[in-house]
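Internal QA ticket QA-208
Title: Verify multi-chain structure generation after dependency bump
Assignee: T.L.

Test input:
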Amino acid sequence: MKTTRIVEAVLFASETPLTPAEIARASGDLSAKEVEEAIGQLCREYEVEERAFQVYPLGDGYQILSRPEFAPYLERFDSITRTNKLSRAALETLAIIAYRQPVSRLEVEEVRGVSAAGVLRNLQERGLIEVVDRAEGLGRPMLYGTTTKFLDHFGLRTIDDLPGPENLEIALRSGE
Amino acid sequence: MKTTRIVEAVLFASETPLTPAEIARASGDLSAKEVEEAIGQLCREYEVEERAFQVYPLGDGYQILSRPEFAPYLERFDSITRTNKLSRAALETLAIIAYRQPVSRLEVEEVRGVSAAGVLRNLQERGLIEVVDRAEGLGRPMLYGTTTKFLDHFGLRTIDDLPGPENLEIALRSGE
Amino acid sequence: MRLPTPVSSQVLEDGDRFLIELERFQGPLDLLLHLIRCQDIDIFDIPIAEITAQFVAAIEHVEQHLTLERAGSFLEMAATLVRIKAQMLLPRRGDLLDDEDPRSELVRRLLEYEVFREVAYSLADAEAERALHRGKGYIEPRPPRRMPELPLELTINELLEVAMSLPAPPEKRPHRAPVRPVTVDEKIELWFKALKRKTRVQFGKFIGRWKTRIHAVMSFLACLELAKRGRVVLRQDRHFGTLWIYPSEDDENS
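Actual output:
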């Protein structure tokens, strides 16, 4: 199997940048240097064939990404922009945490009636919530609160600036 | 921008099969027919260039997937989508549903001679089958059918691509 | 250090060999087909007595081990086989051409099941072939998946609206459990329980499970009450030393 093709398969299957050393793990007899050469070859091929994607260096790794000129088409496309919209579950969880922080996973689950582990992890990865404390008592459960990024997103200075129920009508009207 | 490139960008960015109609949404002046043609063009290009990936038809959609001969190389990496193989009970149940759909739980149980409740729930949770209708008569039992995800899981284009032995006709007729 | 033998291999009895065998089969039809096919028997002329005997032998130990539901399906088939066997013994009126063979319904079911069993094997092949094609994102993100840095689509109004639609917050934690009166009688019961299988109990240990003083006081009063009734003996070697409670001798047999 040609080295270039193996490297292409690995780069294709990965959604995050991989270093040449990591890519070399695909085959027992592959060196990082050979991988670098193969990447150079792929770059030239994609260039010549005018593919919609290209191999880009990112940090100390490489990733195949679509060319910037296709961004408008991808943005039109639901499934690609959808990733930035919070799911209903994430939204509810975020609302609970924003208004009741610091709260434990258990409290979130009590309100929503379903497991919250996955949603909490997701919100944490997005940098919208973080562990702010640990509760007293059995197992010392982690307590979650919102982050500075969360405040930034809404242009709030402190969590006390969050609108209260008295603003709801106004908020709803202005949201129309 | 050439249609083929736009289609390529969208297919490349997607992690699930997309129908031509869905892909056409990427651009205002793109028809499903043009998308189909572009996909045909991409298939030929990847073939000629011996790319490590190919555009595969799955259900009524298309997805870029790595070629099977690269599977051993990719397996050396940690994967998030561990392909969990279906049990024999699940496969037998799917076989019956695929050929007899829409079919009730009772019918599945009669053919296999064992209870089907657990397997059906499991298959439904995995999105491989769904309730497509309700039968007439007592209790209006739910009738099951296979989903697009079922076709994707087995790499099938349509239900007619299902592998079947020659004597299947007999079994199908006796089911009437 | 030697590791303890896994429990499972200790409890394996003879009968479990059948169980393991049976686990391989999807159900009674699967087992029956196996018996027929591996002995090269003509499915349209099944020697019903022989097959019934083999089937029953295979499931003999089913009842104890398989779940009721699974066992039921095997037993039901055994009953069907026995019934067919009986019908075969009855003299049949040869003058009627459409006099159906008692085995025919079973044969139809077996053939039907066999077809779908075949399809299931084909599906397994198709599944394995499909699994060789990997999509984008197959390789696990490293470093761990970062969410796209694109702006989040969410307005403060939406957040507020959702917050307001949620059920009222649960009562502020920690919950205060309603105060329950602690009684001497209750502690007496507990002392009896604690002393039942022991020769002596340390007072400190006994009250250790409760954190409040009222329990210690009531437990002590209970001790004194029991000592007065002659049911226990209290021993303490020195002032503020360990207090031991022994069941009294004549209480041993009660």
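Spot checks passed. Residues 3-76 of chain A form a domain with the Arc Repressor Mutant, subunit A fold (CATH 1.10.10.10).
Status: verified.
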